[in-house]
Specification:
The complex is a heterodimer of chains A (about 475) and B (about 180).
Chain A (H helix, E strand, L loop, with lengths): L1 H11 L33 E4 L6 E7 L4 H5 L7 H11 L5 E16 L4 E16 L2 H9 L9 E2 L5 E16 L4 E18 L3 E8 L7 E15 L13 H15 L1 E13 L4 E15 L3 E12 L2 E2 L14 H12 L2 E4 L3 E4 L3 E10 L21 E10 L6 E11 L4 E10 L5 E10 L2 E7 L13 E12 L1
Antiparallel strand pairs in A: 1-3, 1-22, 2-3, 2-22, 3-4, 4-6, 5-8, 6-7, 7-9, 7-10, 8-9, 9-12, 10-11, 11-15, 11-16, 12-14, 16-17, 17-18, 18-19, 19-20, 20-21, 21-22
Chain B lengths: L1 H15 L16 E7 L1 E6 L4 E2 L7 E8 L6 H6 E12 L5 E9 L4 E9 L8 E9 L4 H4 L2 E10 L9 E13 L4
Chain lengths: ~475, ~180
């Protein structure tokens, strides 16, 4: 339990908007920007990612509380009172989330018809847990001070995925102004868990004419947890030791698990010499969980009134009624917990990006600005623009808006600064640097720079980096 | 100049990022402390329910026993730091009664007892007796040794035609501290 709490609170410090890659979006020097917009501008003819090092993305955090809020050194409050304050300051729409991506293989090439094909494999872990406020209050304080308060079981809302994504896409500049792209994805789920549509309430009420002092009412409870890929991992008959676990996970990662399909689409439109608009829709698809599925569902209503003694006439040595066992049986009968094996599908978290960029500035490097030919690529080494991002989550979509400034300093060095506002963070400053050293491409981006002086105070920190080989 | 400033900011942020003014050892002090109220036993008795008791002349008694299995579970032993029992008895019997709750261990050894008198109804109208017993931190170990409770109600009469009704309702407040998470 303690480790769980520490894990939760450590997660708090690292993220608000998992998967928002506002630094990478639109940075055409980085091949992985095609994963944020398959219709992005491609400035090279071939690329290979360094296996396992071409894209690492870590992102995590909380919308409502920071590590510092809980673990600060303080002479005026103890940690338990700070946890109490945090529980009551957060809402059930606050969330904790962790996202991690590791690209295993990445490649791309341009064919004779000027299509740029790209593909690869990456592994992704994505988890979101909404803060179950009512359950946290009940678990932290008990029901004594909440007589008559209805604790909402619907506050329990969590989902998580570990999967491998196999993808292949094409990108082409259709006209002088328009570039389109699409990517087909096959998802190979390693494991999934999901508990997102829970209902019901628990309330302790003073009994009005009832048999005992209180009515402990579980009303309309319908709590379900769906899992796939987990039951066989915890089945001792199937798994003996770490070797079996690795073998099992690898098998599911290599298209041996539950599969799904999805697409990414994107476009870039060069409105005029100065303005460019782009947009993308990512992960429009679903994973179909059909094997190694185990779901648990508790449904029903029950009023726990206590143990009703009836004082039966008994002979010496004759045991009394099994009141306690009867009570347990009654609860089990009224609120049965079923283990189900029915298939289920999970939509991938649909993500949308959009941006408008104003390009300006001189050329760079060896080519001087040809002011009579404003379509030449050596115009506009700087860009200023806005980006929009949204992701569909179980309770509600999340949005983020970003102002950015991009600059290509030299032929081999460029950078991007972002200022992102979302529902929870209004001062997220990010910075990305991209280097092209010959054919070697390296990039690194970090978020929430204003909190780097003390990461414990950050709601959101992300890191993305990678290494590629590019041929012009 | 600008690019060098950006690079300096970028790598400076990476090099000098840190977590400070925090103390993760405080995790050892995380102690959720719940106060949980839950119904206990309830029953209604009339004179027909009482029987002669050879061990107690001049009175009638009823006895029943129920398990309270969770009381001696590891969870209860580790985390219940105090408890309070509350009884509300509504009585119309015109004679004295006594309620006795004897908690027994799995080996039927009595380790904890609650006993209180019930007020007489002089005129047959309902008279309410409320009784609370706090089980302090010093005594809680005696309570959590038990997994059943024997409930005995004694009425100070041998008149088996006496009219009256006794209704008992009860609850327990458990004070929990999860100090060994």
């Amino acid at each position: 339990m303690r480790f769980f709490l520490i894990f939760i609170f450590l997660c708090l410090g690292f993220l608000g908007f998992a998967q928002n890659k506002q630094l990478l979006y639109g940075v055409s020097e980085v091949p992985q920007s095609l994963l944020t917009n398959p219709g992005g501008i491609v400035e090279y003819n071939t690329h290979f990612g360094i296996p396992f090092f071409s894209h690492l993305h870590l992102n995590g955090g909380s919308s409502g509380v920071t590590v510092y809020d809980i673990f600060q050194t303080s002479n005026t409050s103890d940690i338990n009172s700070r946890i109490t304050d945090a529980i009551f300051s957060m809402d059930n729409t606050d969330f904790f989330t962790v996202t991690q991506q590791l690209e295993i293989i990445s490649f791309g090439w341009r064919n004779s018809k000027d299509y740029y094909f790209s593909g690869g494999i990456y592994q992704e872990f994505d988890m979101i847990t909404y803060f179950p406020k009512d359950l946290a209050i009940l678990g932290w304080e008990g029901n004594r001070d909440y007589i008559g308060y209805e604790f909402d079981l619907g506050d329990l809302n969590t989902s998580g995925d570990l999967l491998t994504v196999y993808h292949f896409g094409a990108n082409k500049k259709i006209t002088d102004k328009l570039t389109l792209g699409a990517r087909f994805k096959i998802y190979s789920s390693i494991f999934n868990f999901r508990s997102t549509s829970n209902k019901g309430t628990f309330v302790t009420r003073e009994s009005d004419g009832g048999p005992n002092i209180y009515d402990h009412l579980l009303e309309g409870a319908d709590v379900q947890v769906q899992t796939s890929g987990i039951a066989s991992l915890i089945d001792n008959d199937n798994v003996n030791g770490a070797g079996d676990v690795v073998s099992h996970v690898m098998g599911r990662a290599l298209l041996g698990g539950n599969l799904g399909v999805g697409i990414d689409v994107g476009a870039t439109y060069e409105i005029n010499r100065n303005f460019t608009a782009s947009a993308s829709i990512l992960d429009l698809g679903a994973v179909f969980h059909t094997n190694d599925v185990e779901n648990y569902r508790a449904r029903g209503s029950y009023n726990l009134t206590g143990i009703n003694l009836i004082f039966p006439p008994l002979e010496d040595g004759e045991p009394s009624f099994p009141y306690y066992q009867n009570l347990e049986d009654e609860v089990t009968e009224q609120v049965p917990i079923d283990t189900l094996y029915n298939k289920y599908s999970v939509m991938r978290p649909l993500k949308m990006n959009a941006a408008v960029t104003y390009h300006f500035g001189e050329g760079y490097g060896k080519n001087e600005c040809d002011c009579l030919n404003r379509q030449t690529t050596n115009f506009g080494n700087q860009g200023l623009g806005v980006q929009f991002y949204s992701v569909f989550r179980p309770k509600q979509p999340q949005f983020a808006a970003t102002l950015f400034y991009y600059r290509r300093f030299t032929e081999f060095l460029s950078g991007k600064i972002t200022y992102t506002v979302d529902s929870f963070v209004s001062d997220n400053l990010g910075l990305m640097a991209v280097g092209d050293f010959g054919k070697f491409n390296v990039y690194m981006g970090v978020d929430n720079l204003l909190r780097y002086g003390n990461l414990a105070k950050a709601n959101h920190v992300s890191l993305q980096l990678g290494f590629n080989i590019k041929y012009q | 100049m600008f690019k060098y400033s950006c690079l300096l900011l970028f790598f400076g942020a990476l090099l000098f990022s840190c977590v400070k003014d925090t103390d993760f050892d405080q995790a050892d002090a995380i102690t959720p402390s719940q106060e949980v109220e839950v119904n206990f036993v309830f029953f209604t008795l009339e004179i027909d329910d009482f029987q002669m008791n050879p061990l107690s002349e001049g009175s009638l008694t009823v006895i029943d026993t129920t398990e309270v299995r969770f009381l001696d579970d590891d969870f209860a032993i580790d985390n219940i730091v105090a408890a309070e029992f509350f009884f509300k008895v509504t009585n119309t019997f015109p004679v004295g009664l006594v309620a006795d709750f004897t908690f027994l261990s799995e080996e039927n050894e009595p380790f904890f007892n609650i006993n209180f008198p019930i007020q007489i109804s002089e005129d047959g109208s309902p008279v309410i007796t409320e009784f609370s017993q706090l089980v302090t931190a010093e005594d809680i170990e005696l309570l959590t040794l038990n997994d059943k409770v024997v409930v005995t109600i004694t009425i100070e009469t041998e008149n088996q035609t006496l009219e009256g009704v006794l209704n008992l309702q009860s609850k327990t407040t458990y004070f929990l501290e999860f100090s060994d998470l």
